[in-house]
Amino acid sequence: MKAAYINRYGNIDDVQLDEQSKPLITENEALVKIHAASINPLDLRVLEGEFKAILPVKFPFILGNDFAGTVFQVGANVKQFKAGDEVYAKTDQNGAFAEYTVVQQSSLALKPQNISMELAASLPLVSLTAWQALVEIAKVQVGQKVLIHAGSGGVGSIAIQLAKHLGATVATTTSGKNAQWVKALGADIVIDYKTTNFEQELKDYDVVLDTQGGKILEKSLNVLKRGGRVISISGPPDRDFAEAIHANWLLKCIIPLLSWSIRNKAKKRGITYSFLFMQPNGQHLSELSKLVESGKINPIVDKTYAFTEIKDAFQYVNTGRAKGKVVLKIAE
Predict the structure, then answer these.
(1) Per its UniProt record, what PROSITE patterns does this chain match (predicted)?
(2) Does a structural domain hold residue 165?
(3) Are 32 and 115 contained in the same domain?
(4) pLDDT of 57-109, one tens digit each?
(5) pTM for the full model?
(6) Same domain, 175 and 263
(7) What is the maximum span of the chain, computed from C-alpha positions, in angstroms?
(8) 301-331 residue pLDDT tens
(9) If we measure between CA atoms, which residue out of 6, 29, 43 comes closest to residue 101?
(10) Which of 57, 55, 56, 45 is nearest to 12 (CA)?
């Protein structure tokens, strides 16, 4: 099968598009023929080796984290899906930038019936991130105030829609040129990060979803009220992350130290800091499918590329200017 893979950590030029062996399924897995996959900033970070000390990969490594396609074959214990089902998922072990991938039954969901494969492929990673942050961790309630950083990005554009569905007042940061665009998604308050310091404009927020890390994460503490929560997908990992990746005893000691400073600063203000290590989850995706089918959440795709144009697609994602997601069309 054709696949996009790397033989070493490096840069976009190190991505190879060539033949790899079709993966084999076990009794709890499904083999899926991929129609479309999407590129996330995470894919670039994996490619560059940012996580190699904590989450090393085995080469050759097929890239890609989310996809939509058709079930081709199922293992003996797979009862929820059958050959021919149209599905989507966040990958668990095998990459998505390939003509076929293998995924655990528990990670799969039927794709929303009202959208194309390309639109469905744009959703799993970003929508699961938004769901697990706002529903599972923050448990956002009607009337709460939520700040979502980078509202025009892949995660932000879905998180705004989900937070509004949950009944929150939503603030977001973006560039001025995207202000009306994120308002149309549901943002109540839009902060132009190029001209305005968000921490001087916002106060007494219940939840911040941080997609930036660094100084943005630290400044976010200033907008939260006591009892508030900041959830980061770009900040330093915490003890829960070490447990989730089944780290060895040494890493379990080291990893929590990476977030000690931000956790301590948050604690002094009566705020909880959480690092979100999003997990594949078919049940969560099934709930999100209902929201897509009812029109509560609309997938946002900026550009679609042919599989052979994968390096161009990576370059575009690397500019950081994509509004929503960038999708690869794997099969016709």
Answers:
(1) QOR_ZETA_CRYSTAL
(2) yes
(3) yes
(4) 999 999 999 999 999 999 999 999 999 999 999 999 899 999 999 999 999 99
(5) 0.97
(6) yes
(7) 58
(8) 999 999 999 999 999 999 999 999 999 999 9
(9) 29
(10) 45
